[in-house]
Amino acid sequence: MKISVIIPTFNRKAKLIRTLDSIKRSTFPLKDFEVIIIDDGSSDDTGQIIKNYPKDKLNLTYYCQVNQGPAKARNVGVELAKAAIVLFCGDDTLFHKNLLKRHYELHKENKGIAVLGLCLWDEHLDVDRFMRYIAPNGFQYNYSLIDNKEDAGFSFFYTCNISLEKRWFNFAKFDTSFTDAAYEDIDLGYMLEKKGLKIHYCEDAIVYHSHKYDPESFYKRMEKVGKNAEVYFRKHKDLKSKDMKSDAFPGSLHIIKLIFGILAKSMIIKEINIERHWFFNIFYNKFKGILLKRKEY
Question: Which phi and psi (to 5°) does residue 68 adopt?
């Protein structure tokens, strides 16, 4: 066993089946990898669907936990993993046929690294202008900011498509105080970078993100991102951030949120520059999430 693929899932049985079907088409020998599905308390019949999935095509393990979030799910997946290398992906990602092959080749050539692959949109989604605005070089993922492909930096610890040796989890695990899928991956990346981990970016190790976003659904996500950002920067007070560190705007973040809210609602801006309109709405909702989380402390 060379690679353990770890997939947390929650109420996405149809997308999960598409993910598994794409993995079956891999050029990497089926005997050399396993797929571990951690069901984070789905209320649909995900468990039954997976139990009926053809086991002769994939080395498949299914584990169901009480809903505790993706951080806990990934930690459980690592504990169950039999291979020396673990690969994280989403339950809404489709594998390029050479994905596993490229991850494994990079690990053979470079010991002690993480391999970050590229996440592109699944073109079957009818990808529109907004989706191209947020990824792959925007607010969802931004690969254009990678300056050094052999040391991308901890902020690119994207669990949609990243692999590393299981032994790194002797140093740190995903922090379960991050209840949503935001910043729990960057948090782990930061802790492991301090232990010497470097992230190598491999742009031909590709997954395709099969998740439709419109502005309103993404704004809701950004509110959750803001909440987890507050957790992250309270935990790591040594890090600096212009917009999210807990004490970056003492007494003034409410004013900044108000200003961004006014700009976000401006019909003039929306008519003149739709991307600027999206920008103000994205940051307004992020700031909203930060302030909501602060009330809990």
Answer: -135, 0
The closest alpha carbon to 246, from 233, 227, 255, belongs to: 233
Q: Which fold has domain 3-209?
A: Spore Coat Polysaccharide Biosynthesis Protein SpsA; Chain A (3.90.550)
- Map out the domains of the chain as residue ranges: 3-209, 217-294
In the structure encoding, which two tokens stand for residue 266, read together?
Answer: 């401006």
pLDDT digit string (tens) for the chain, length 297 residues:
899 999 999 999 999 999 999 999 999 999 999 999 999 999 999 999 998 998 777 999 999 999 999 999 999 999 999 999 999 999 999 999 999 999 999 999 999 999 999 999 998 999 999 999 999 999 999 999 999 999 999 999 999 999 999 999 999 999 999 988 899 999 999 999 999 999 999 999 999 999 999 999 999 999 999 999 999 999 998 885 544 444 444 458 889 999 999 999 999 999 999 999 999 999 999 999 999 999 998
Q: Look up the pTM and report it.
A: 0.93
Closest by CA to 155, choosing from 201, 109, 213, 217, is 201
Cβ burial 184-216 (10 Å sphere, 16+ → b, else e): bbbbbbbbbbeeebbbbbbeebbbbbbbebebe
